[in-house]
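Course exercise 7: structure representation. Students receive a sequence record and must write out the corresponding structure in token form. The form below is the worked example handed out in class, using ATP-binding cassette domain-containing protein (283 residues). Read each field label carefully; the graders check that inputs and outputs are placed in the correct fields and that the protein name is recorded exactly as given.

STUDENT ID: A-19
EXERCISE PROTEIN: ATP-binding cassette domain-containing protein
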Amino acid sequence: MTAMPPVELDNETGDVSVPAMSAVGLTLGFGAKTVLNEVNLAFDARAITALLGPTGSGKTTFLRTLNRMNDKVTGYRHSGDVLLGGTSIFGGRDLMELRRSVGMLFQRPNPFPMSIMDNVVAGVRAHKMVPRKQFRSVAEEKLRLVGLWNAVKDRLGDSPFRLSGGQQQLLCTARALAVNPEVLLLDEPTSSLDPNTTDKIEQLISSLAGRLTVIMVTHDLAQAARIADRTAFFFEGRLVEEGPTAHLFSSPQHEETARYVSRGQLTAENRQRFADHEERVSP
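STUDENT ANSWER:
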């Protein structure tokens, strides 16, 4: 692979009218059990989409399918397709290259057993993206991006397991961003974090919009309201509805969605956000 200098995140100039990723007639299951049936869902380029739904609704299985994390799970099956840039992620597509394009951040931090700096550049090294002499500059760039540089700049050779849980999650975020993904998948990335770190992660996610496509599973309705441009609601193995977050929360089109979002205690700030959004999009 040809060496390339560290650059800003991809998708700075793409056509946002074309979905960054889409599920087409996607059915997922394990053995005889069908988890999701006939999902058709397109993800806007350079936008944040939240996936909501009760436990067991299939949203995490769906998310993990988008970069083929389920492939080796016993009994896993799928039909239909997932398109990235108009091309199927299945078939002969190189799995390592797919996961460079479609990165993932998990519910709990998962640093590698190597130094802080080596964690950040692990993917850069594996894909031979830059010469070794540029590793430190890549690490600094991404650690600054996630707001962790000042805390670790004098201990880049230390173990990441000496960091706090929130710092570990920021480190894993820097690692995911270092390979310049087109799409970033987030599986409840703040569920185990304190409120201050959650706020930092949310600010970071919001800052990424406009540079890459973010698809995020969350059980926190207020979080979806704060940062998601669009929201999709899953229930009992179906995609019930999808649309702009403000509209889905304030004017759900299906009874299941209305019941689910009514359980969330939306703050006055979020209600004002909805009102402001509707005012902006109204003709």
